Amino acid sequence: xxxxxxxxxxxxxxxxxxxxxxxxxxxLDQIPADGLVRNIFELxxxxxxxxxLLAAVSLGIxxxxxxxxxxxxxxxxxxxxxxxxxxxxxxxxxxxxxxVFGPDSRAVLFLFNSIQLPVETSLSALxxxxxxxxxxxxxxxxxxxxxxxxxxxxxxxxxxxxxxIISTESLFFGFFAGLRNWLVQVxxxxxxxxxxxxxxxxxxxxxxxxxLAVDRPYGE
Amino acid sequence: MPELPLDFIEMIVAAFVTVMILxxxxxxxxxxxxxxxxxxxxxxxxxxAIAWANVVKPTLVQPLIDKELVSLFSRxxxxxxxxxxxxxxxxxxxxxxRLSRFGSLPVALLVGVGAAVVVGxxxxxxxxxxxxxxxxxxxQEIVFTTSGEPLSIxxxxxxxxxxxxxxxxxxxxxxxxxxxxELTGGARRxxxxxxxxxxxxxFIAVTFGVMYAGALMATIVVLAQRFQFLHDVLxxxxxxx
Amino acid sequence: MAEIRCPMCSTMNPETAxxxxxxxxxxxxxxxxMPPADQQASGVEGIKPAESDVPSDGDDWLANIRAGAIMGSxxxxxxxxxxxxxxxxxxxxxxxxEADSSIDEGPPTEEIPDxxxxxxxxxDDVTEExxxxxxxxxxxxxxxxxxxxxxxxxEDEDWITRLRDEAPTEQPTGVEDLRPSPDxxxxxxxxxxxxxxxxxxxxxxxxxxQGEMVQEKPIPxxxxxxxxxxxxxxxxxxxxxxxxxxxxEEEMExxxxxxxxxxxxxxxxxxxxxxxxGETEEKAFTEITGLDMDSIELPDWLGELKPSTPQxxxxxxDAADLAPATLPSWLEAxxxxxxxxxxxxxxxxxxxxxxxxxxxxxxxxxxxxxPVVAMxxxxxxxxxxxxxxxxxxAQAELLQRLVEEEEKEIPPVKAERRRxxxxxxxxxxxxLLAVILPFGFNQLGVEGYALPSAVSPDxxxxxxxxxxxxxxxxxxxxxxxxxxxxxxxxxxxxxxxEHAVMRSLPIVTVSTRPTGPxxxxxxxxxxxxxxxxxxxxxxxxxxxxxxxxxxxxxFAIAPRNVVLSGYHLPExxxxxxxxxxxxxxxxxxxxDFNLVIVIxxxxxxxxxxxxxxxxxxxxxxxxxxxxxxAEPLVRPYFEAxxxxxxxxxxxxxxxxxxxxxxxxPLDTSVQWDAFGLGMLAVELILIAGGAYGVGLWLxxxxxx
Amino acid sequence: xxxxxxxxxxxxxxxxxxxxxxxTIDRRRxxxxxxxxxxxxxxxxxxxxxxxxxxVHLSLGTGSVIGTDSAxxxxxxxxxxSIAETTTMSDKPVVATTGDGAMAILAQDTxxxxxxxxxxxSRYSPISGRMLGPTPFSYVANLPILLASEDISVxxxxxxxxxxxxxxxxxxxxxxxxxxxxxxxxxxxxxxYATAEHPLIGEEIFAGGAYLNVGRVHRASLRVQDAxxxxxxxxxxxxxxLSLLGVSF
Lengths: 220, 241, 704, 249
Fold this sequence. Notes:
Chain A is mainly α. Helix content of chain A is about 80%, strand content about 0%.
């Protein structure tokens, strides 16, 4: 095994990981510790708080990285550099306003309510068209039993959820509403439970590889 | 006229930006790109300001203002102030490509905590509760009729419980990776696993169909709400009320 | 029309051309009496003498050569140092002059290199076999056989035509005439001087004169598990015969693959003729199939592993004085024996051609530019077979396919022509119309969809729960969604929060997302305006908890240690901490809140709050307000025997019902109609897609 | 020592034990896995992208490093290692984007390690691992411009996404790129199943390391998942029978 700084990083990752992990299974406050902290539970809280702080500082580094990418694009006058200029101006103005007057100041809330909120909501509205087109293409082009079951189920749930082809007051709505509830609360719930269990298995093993220092995304 | 012109301006700008984004339906265009870059700039500035105000300033800067220097070097000060400062300084080495290697200590801490939260949260939050819920599906109240319960309800509950267990087991079997090696070098499931996997695929399609319908309903509500907003802005501008 | 090859750059030029079209080297010989300008233009620029050196009479070709020698003397000096002293330099000229005068005598004897001498000596005396190298004795045996088979072969014919006569003459029975058809004849007419032409690797298309690419024929794919492919699997077109130029595909079409029945041996196993071993088997094979082995060509890279006759192998063993190396059987079978028969013969001087161009123009017996080894040769007719089993053949096939796949260029994916997104525009238009039309219903007097009347069972529990919560302590409302979902969740959560504000329940908001606090301020500000609820008195914002599930767990254990500053606090609180507010008087931990409402669109966030807070939430009810898509994943927490979620409110229909039954004002009729028409449009789109898909599938079924 | 969740600890130790066991027997009894269409196609298109001088883009999603949604991104980093090894010598090496600052740092560290091992550190550029936007929608809104300006022909989504993941996949489809998409959230999987050309469903996103031959431990991980899966199924069946008999647990 070659000796290197990665052993130090691995020790840090494995050490902090095990302390935080034990917190899920063991009442750590009953394990005394002398020195900087009274017990392991306090040490776990400290580690988590440091992690929260480092995550926020990493966000700052990420924003600097974003600034650098677009600044490079402007200085090299690459294609689309004007858009990067718009981004950098609004980023700097909003950041200064937020730092000086606070993120809950009227000026920052003006920018949030006039641009960020409507843009994100409009992107979500675009999703309606995207999903409808995707549903049409899925069943029109793939043409296998699974896609047919997928779109058929979606159709039944839509009809049974609210007004559409059938109004909520029509005679048949009761049948479709019952069928919709059964699909959601039985068939989909069972399938969702299987998917959740599968995803949990995958997550556990991926996390264990990091805790056993087999995967070392933090570099050498 | 609305009392505060700022609100009115806010509404007008929001309406313009909404139309600029919805124009992407036609195709990628200048309006969409301007609105997008405006949005990314503001979102970044806003997130940076919130992270500073809620986390970085209270932990690293406020103690310098509020507390005396002596207390910062005490036992409590070491863990709440000095060690965090040291970790942050190490992390800032990531900004320089040359020294970036030595900034991996805090990153390793982040990864360790993240991996532990993933493993611990999955075991205690999903694996155990969901397995137990699946096992309890076929409880006595469901299988054996209680007095006064109509037969149809009992039958429906029994079938539902069986379908719930069957769905969970068949979906789990579908995701099984191990397979048998074929003569021609390919890989295939065993006969029984193949049947359960096919059933599992159908239940996955049903589950995804339900979620897709839910998401579609949500986005239609958002689309309707956007046009409701544009309609309100137009009526306010035209009506001048 | 015959062509001449330029000695300088090997370009083919028409016979009549004097100067090479490519490098303008002199093609026609220098004949005395040619005017000096022609000599200079004869392409000898490379060694053109300076003006002053040109001798006055100008027409003596030797003077030119001498001038060339002077120019090159600089180089020769160097050479001289290594080979011969200066005085000897003119000596080669002397010899040239002798060669010039006695052109018919052939190459000067004393000049003949040793190997050449042996060769000639061998040519005269056939009997002394010992000294004669063994390969030469076979060459001579070959020549005698040849001369018997082809009496009267024209001495003076061009070496290429003799080469062509070498091609197999006996016509294998049972296979149509393999002799190239007339139009192919012309192609072979062209004197294409080739080096030892083993034929380019089958997958590299030989450059055709017109430069167009020969279309490769794909090797038929088959699974490794199958038995070795019958010879039809190896299409003759694909494998050019050794020595023959690769012809464009269409000309080779008439070269049919042998009939399948003939290739099956007695036991019905597909025999691969080229790979039968041993002389005896070959006879049996020819009798059965009537197919001469020469006509069946191996893949080129296999071609080099030419079979060796048992008899030749025996000879080698005897000659070797070293203890024979013990080779593995499969290697022993594949050991090649030199079966190439040198076709190269050194003709007598009279026959040798006059050098047509270049500095030695006009001379005979000039050594060929190409090394002798490179002269064209063809495999001997009596080639023995490789001792290769079926399995080895299959492995050879596999290896060949691997080689070809490596060299095969991945065909570039043709970029789809960017088609107009008509389908996307059509669907977008339908949806936009469906959502916009309801705004005109009132003016047009059209009646929209009726509001829902049915009440779902888990709905009434929620109504009772919120209706019965005491107002002494605040309700915690978690805004864990991004602005993108505010369109739906503001409408759904608005019903619940309006009900709480209507009942003067104090509300405290918190969020684990940076954009949560401003969303909370926006929604409560809008709801509070109708009920006089004011920030700081009726509701309060704790702000942003950074750190995801870690922060949730810390908040559940000790909220006061985690939330330090608060968000958008009223003036009265902005100096002190948010915990100084009267609203938060009795709150030390999560279970001190009367109700916890989590508004989210993501199932992960819902699971995090359900799992992480469970140990510390105590008896406080937990209600989830979800986006429509998240319901199936959160419902298991609601229906588990040990309830972790006490109430669920999902989607617009449930919100409209909640407003109806909690007595809240109903100003959402237009939005309800827009939602209904939008759902109608989407249902029709999906039905159209399904019909289109099923229709196409049925069409395909009927075609098949 | 009271207050110990024995079941949880037992399951944790079971996972660790099975992982060590399967790593040791992997050489003697190698595993065979069922084919997953997405990963099979991914290998071919990456080679074609390298040959055609086009770029591969890997999105690590918008999850935070210290959240439960960091698992698919950690699996995405294993896929990034495999892709980076193939494209280090390409004219346009792989670009990894994310919606979280810390995840962007991890992406840069992973890329630097691969370039160092390939002795091509001079070709490494720090902005090949970058954050596009701090919030999910701001990250997705930046994608169409990135896909158009950086000539991306392979668009891989391997990380945590919300419903905006469907927009991210659709932007790739409109660009005519090869789209392979997988995440952990079931609802997002449903939307990616409809919009992406090669969706990874369920836990297939976590099998990237094994199917792209990143290492022996990744293959052993899949065998651990399968073993525990069979234990869960057995547990559910036995539990159902016991609860039928009135035994509560």
